[in-house]
Design a protein that fits this description.
This protein is of the alpha/beta class. The protein is 37% helix and 18% strand. The chain has 10 helices and 9 strands. The chain has helices at residues 19-27, 45-52, 69-81, 103-110, 162-165, 178-188, 219-239, 245-266, 269-280, 299-302, and strands spanning 5-11, 34-40, 59-62, 89-92, 98-99, 116-124, 130-135, 158-161, 193-204. Strands 1, 2, 3, 4, 5, 6, 7, 8 and 9 form a 9-stranded mixed β-sheet that branches. Helix 7 packs antiparallel against helix 8 (245-266). It is globular and about 60 Å long. The N and C termini lie far apart (51 Å). The mean pLDDT is 93.
């Protein structure tokens, strides 16, 4: 894929301290043929520039007043798509993570033969120390069908062709799992997916992560995550038009399974504690949201 790409991130309160290192990793890319776009979610654009410091160069996007996290990101995507530059793709990265030098180059290469590419990530602690664990799909052959149950295409490790993004429905303003919504909508559109098995990012796990993947999980963690996943299925089934029959059937089956989990496990203190014990005994190789109604523990709520 040739042409100037757009590299997009969203800055939110509390992430400012990570910006200098993030920006340094962006500037260290082997492929520098991209423009930086930054969405400001409840953060003033000047504070972003001040945090990064000397040499900062980006096309900032100011968040809409009282915008939700989803509208901030959706409006930024729309601004990039309507820009005077005809960007062939958008590289999505989180500003609290770090890019390895070949992140953009690898994404560009993968998009030669796919609409959407993702990459594995090394998982690091808040201070940047390596946990010894990496984030990757259990089996590449399961992509994209695995999107019915869990997600590997986040807004830190994923790159979309812009012609595919133009075909996707806008995420509803109240959508809190926008990355999963977008990937599911693309699956419904028949998008082709690819995934780089070599880690191209450092994925930071700390208290402000919406989608944590490292155990130990608590009962509160599972309850909050379950509510988000239940909400996700409502959004994708209501706001994604013309879902192919097989895809809709898979989504509805997972929706029913998660709802049963919510009804049987989350509503019982004894059962949720037993589930937490079980999930924390599994190997620490989770992907986003697979620890909600994990298939390995399904006997706990099917009985």
């Amino acid at each position: 894929m040739s042409g100037v790409l757009a590299l997009y991130t969203t800055v939110y309160p509390g992430a400012e301290r990570f910006l200098p290192a993030w920006y340094q990793s962006v500037c260290a890319q082997t492929d520098r043929d991209f423009d930086i776009w930054i969405g400001a979610d409840q953060v003033e654009a000047r504070l972003v520039a001040d945090a990064i410091g000397k040499g900062f160069n980006a096309r900032s996007f100011i968040a809409p007043e009282r915008g939700t996290p989803a509208t901030v990101r959706q409006n930024a995507i729309d601004a990039i798509l309507s820009s005077e530059k005809d960007y062939p793709a958008i590289v999505f990265v989180d500003c609290d993570d770090l890019l390895y030098p070949h992140r953009v180059e690898a994404a560009r290469n993968l998009l030669q033969n796919s609409d959407i590419s993702g990459c594995a990530m090394d998982i690091v602690e808040e201070n940047g120390s390596f946990t010894g664990l990496s984030f990757h799909p259990p089996a590449l052959s399961e992509i994209p069908q695995m999107l019915a149950r869990a997600n590997i295409f986040g807004l830190s490790n994923t790159t979309y062709r812009t012609d595919m993004l133009r075909r996707l429905p806008p995420a509803p303003a109240q959508c809190r799992l926008m990355d999963w919504f977008m990937a599911t909508a693309a699956w419904a559109q028949g998008a082709s997916f690819s995934f780089e098995k070599t880690p191209q990012m450092q994925y930071r796990q700390y208290g402000q992560n919406t989608a944590r993947i490292l155990p130990p999980f608590t009962a509160d963690d599972i309850c909050r995550a379950t509510a988000l996943v239940v909400e996700h299925y409502k959004h994708v089934l209501a706001y994604i038009p013309e879902i192919p029959t097989a895809t809709r059937t898979a989504l509805e089956a997972e929706q029913a399974r998660v709802q049963r989990f919510a009804d049987r496990i989350v509503q019982s203190l004894e059962r949720i504690e037993r589930y937490v014990t079980g999930i924390n005994q599994l190997p620490a190789t989770h992907i986003w949201w697979d620890y909600v109604a994990h298939p390995s523990l399904e006997s706990q709520w099917k009985d």
